[in-house]
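BACKBONE GEOMETRY TOKENS
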Amino acid sequence: MDEDKQLDKGESEKDCGNYRNLLDKRLDHDFVLSDEEDRLVDAHLEACTKCSAWYRHTASIIETVKVMPQFDVSENLTQNILASVAKEEIASQRSWSWVVYATGIFAAMWVLLIVDGYETIWGVGSWILGLLTLVALKFLIADTGKKHQVVER
């Protein structure tokens, strides 16, 4: 029903958006609306119940934030948080490094297997070498994962 009233007066959602931008500027006390803009905004607030409710709600939020207590955080806490984030980033980068190593080893094994056919004795040797490389890689990855685990206290 309110929407019908707005549409009868030639208002639209786009007009409300434009007025809300002006209301934002009004709420920002560093910006002053012109007399004409101020008059238009007041007339719109009287005619549009949605914008009027939005304005009252937004103004109450701003007032609530202004009276909320401000807490100072110690520099030590800030540095501890930043150090933890840096450690996590390094651990994340290291966790992807094994993918690069595994890809390189896989490519080398693939070349060895293609160059040495699997029918020859050298091919069997290549398969054994590949198997040993995979086992070594598995232990390398498992060992690396243990070193980079974060200990919670």
